[in-house]
Amino acid sequence: MNSYDARVRYTLKVIEDSFLELLGKKPIAKITVTELCQTAQINRATFYKHYLDIPDLLEKTEEKLFEQIKELFEDPQNDQELFLKLMHYLKNGIRRYMVLGLETADPQLPFKTLKRCMQWSFPITASCAGGMDAQKQAMLHSMLSFAVGGILSSWIQNGMEETPEYIARLAGTLCTHMIAGIKKGEILL
Q: Residue 149 to residues 119, 120, 130, 158: CA-CA distances in angstroms?
């Protein structure tokens, strides 16, 4: 890593942090490049070197968030490990996520996140659902995704009082019992 890369990463972090600070105070439509540059203490040329405009900054900030979440899905030992990594990520970065998902920023962020997590987690579901045809695997995956999404949504809305370990265990247990119930014929698909 050279000093140029470190400076660029620092500059991008300052821009993103300043953007999130402003986004927490006002709607995205009211944030100007000039105001952002003043808050970040950078010049406009520096901003435009990395972004086209404020909506481009929002999109790239969300993409960075999605890349970080996607990394959690790479090579988990099991669903419990995945859930635990995801819960810790959310607990540590919830302010950032909540600000990006505000009605005045991108109210579609939770849906976009769920959609991507469903895409990334399908191989895990498929490996647990051996012997099921593709249509039933897809239905099972949707059921599990929305169930886990509901657990996460409730956890977040209730202030994340429970530990990430507890929520991960809860989500993992739900998935395990649902898959076992389907395999035994106790739950119909």
A: 13, 14, 23, 14
CA distance 107 to 99: 10
Structural domain range at position 42:
3-51
Q: Are residues 80 and 133 in the same domain?
A: yes
Residue 59: how many other CB atoms lie within 10 Å: 14
Helix H segments across 77-189?
A: 79-100, 109-128, 134-157, 164-184
Query: What is this structure's pTM?
Result: 0.83
User: Does any domain span residue 98?
Assistant: yes
Domain assignment present for 189: no
Residue 91 CA to residue 48 CA, distance in Å, equals 32
Number of domains in the chain: 2
What is the tens place of the pLDDT at every residue in 24-58?
999 999 999 999 999 999 999 999 999 999 999 99
Check whether residue 95 and residue 133 sit in a common domain: yes
Distance from C-alpha of 32 to C-alpha of 97, rounded to nearest angstrom: 21
Residue 173 and residue 132 share a domain = yes
Instruction: Tell me, yes or no, whether 45 and 126 share the same domain.
Output: no
Query: Taking the CB of residue 33, how many other CB atoms lie within 10 A of it?
Result: 14
Where are the alpha helices (H) located in 30-78, listed in sequence order?
A: 33-40, 44-50, 54-72
